[in-house]
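Bug: token stream looks shifted between consecutive jobs. Job 1:
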Amino acid sequence: MGANNIISREQAEALIREQVVPQIFQDVPKKSAFMALARKLPNMTSKQTRIRVLDQLPMAYWVNGDTGFKQTSEQAWDNVWLTAAELAVIVPIPEAVLDDAEFDIMGEVTPRVNEAIAQRVDSATIFGVNRPAEWAADIITRARQAGNNVSVSDAKDWYDLIMSENGAFDKVEELGYAVTGAIGAMGMKAKLRGLRTKDGLPIYTASMQGATSYGLDGNPLYFLDNGAFDKTIAQLVVGDFSQAVYAIRQDVTIKILDQGVIQDPTTKEIIYNLAQQDMIALRVVFRMGWALPNPATRLDGSRTGCPFAYIEPGTPVTTQTVTYTVSDASGAVKGAKVNVAGAILTTNEEGKAVFNLRKGEYDVTVKAKGYKTSTDNIAVNASAVEKAITLIEAK
């Protein structure tokens, strides 16, 4: 027997016990910034909820002399609808895998599905990404039509882009609203550090004692870390989030299925037969609706403004011009309200209203006093769109 003979690690590999850390290293599930900032309404009791919105304000007039005639005025209201859209997912798991797992798979999956729901809500409401067909246009689209987009092409510093005249805050305040919150990409932290007023006071602060960890000019600032922020569309979004409302039709509902089949949504081919393959499936459903009612105010009587503004990226996202020309039997109709998925513009002397829209489908409503309401639907792709609407007088 040689003097150098030993039992090596390779020979004893089957006997060596591996140390396994008794936890799963993962990030904390993220929540929705939109739902944290916007105003929550009572839960919906049906698929649609109607909000009555002030559409036209009355006017007052001076009376000339002792025998002058007093003039008349009117007030009008409009309907804004919250329509519930559904988010859902099914997670199939073989029962044998569930039994053999060292951790509670259901307990690990559930918070991640909730995080995915939060990500989808923020993406759709703020940026219009994967926007449900039932929902109105997103915050960015609405702000863009109101002219509340701030360009970085003129090389302003970040203080001017956010706080100065024609900056993001000013765009909101000019319409009579106060900024109540801001949402930025994670990369905005580097741009905001050290940002100060002309008097040297910091406008970007970090604190562990406030409602959020960060603040911008005294307002809560969320850095979206749930993957929802689209930096190709905006760098920073600010606004009066109390003007945005949402309501839940069905809160996050979890059901464990052990019977039935799961089909491919496209081919309809059966992928899994739960009973036959000894599987269960975690089904999660969530339904909610949201709206930006944008009532008439003394500073925005036509409702063409928006209580939100945003700072564009260095290369603004591509939009297409969508021109609506409104006329009647005798010619152009001035002052008609063209409502494209919630974004409102009024027609000019030539009866035209010009929108700048990203790719997608939009429902359109055209209203004018003395005429029947006209509805339309447009699909925006890679070129400009021209549409003509002829209004019919109401009888």
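Job 2, same session, no restart:
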Amino acid sequence: MGQAFARMKFGILALMAAVLAVAVPQMAVAQEAGVAEAAEAAPEAVGGYTPMAPTEGKGMPTAYEDDALASMTFQDQYSQDGQYALWMHDWILMPVITVMSLFVLGLLIYVGLRFNRRVNPMPSKTTHNTLIEVVWTVLPVIILVVIAVPSITLLARQYETPPADAITIKTVGYQWYWGYEYPDHDVEIISNMLTEEEAVASGQPFQLAVDNRMVVPVGVPLRIQTTAADVIHAFAVPSLWFKQDAVPGRLNERMLVIDEPGVYYGQCSELCGALHGYMPITVEAVPMEQFEAWVVSQGGSLTAAEEVVEAVADDTSAAEAVEEPAA
């Protein structure tokens, strides 16, 4: 009896082992398939954010060895203010400066040849010439007026107030790295320069690449606020025509709209200490869907931004309702 019970027990255990031997691999395959499906579905669920690869020559300085002329002038501009400023430089300032320099050089050469001691041993005793004095007074005034119109226009554009629904990004300078805060999305990151090995491995320029980029949406108003935690820094991205001081205890603000998706590099432009040259800035401009996916990947919230937009819409509606009875 005891032997029969033992054989029955052994048979049951053998049967259970056989069932497990068949079921466990199938369960593992199903689990792996489920994980793969979840991995494939995850990027679609959050918009599929992937860090953007930089484009050679776009948003970064040009080496003298690659293009000597491009290395000595402004970078291509990817904001409307930058394009206007570059147009003003290329088509107003440079022609005026070139013509004036050549004119003065010509006068110096003429005076040196015409009125030197050998050619003109008896110097003229003329004290003044009314026509010449009028010309050299009126002509500079006209030149200054021509330059002043686009200059004041550019200045006004650079200080345009961001709209109420602009996305706010607070950049904080530290010794010696940058911090980026997104109060509309509850995101805060710290950005440090990559080592040369890390930059080369990621296909980015050394001393400009960072571990955490300032990711922003393209084509929408951005409210860039700058401040500092210790000494004065300066947040500057040349290809976006953006430079703003970061002063401790003070909050500077300026609007920025980036025209094209891309990776744009900059650096701290205020001497801030021993590692001043190791505070690079990397701005990655992406479509709104990619930006929202990045916010989610950073643990941020899209609800806060929606609440800001709704509050702005409510304020606008209330203001219009007040104006209608008055009209």
